Amino acid sequence: MSILLIAALAAAAAGYAVSYTVEGRSMAPTLEPGHRVLTDPFADGYAPVRLDIVVARPPRAPRRW
């Protein structure tokens, strides 16, 4: 097993990384549905650079009065 893979699994287990499953085909062929990605939840204020993958939260449903 690769040392990088072991480090990524350890980071996820310790809470330093958050795992997401790809659900759509918008990133194909780079990411396919079912692929898993690890993200850094502490990257606030970080400016993404070319080739970075950015995970965004879905918008909240509008309130209906």
TrEMBL record:
<dbReference type="Pfam" id="PF10502">
    <property type="entry name" value="Peptidase_S26"/>
</dbReference>
<dbReference type="InterPro" id="IPR036286">
    <property type="entry name" value="LexA/Signal_pep-like_sf"/>
</dbReference>
<protein>
    <submittedName>
        <fullName>S26 family signal peptidase</fullName>
    </submittedName>
</protein>
<feature type="domain" description="Peptidase S26">
    <location>
        <begin position="4"/>
        <end position="61"/>
    </location>
</feature>
<dbReference type="InterPro" id="IPR019533">
    <property type="entry name" value="Peptidase_S26"/>
</dbReference>
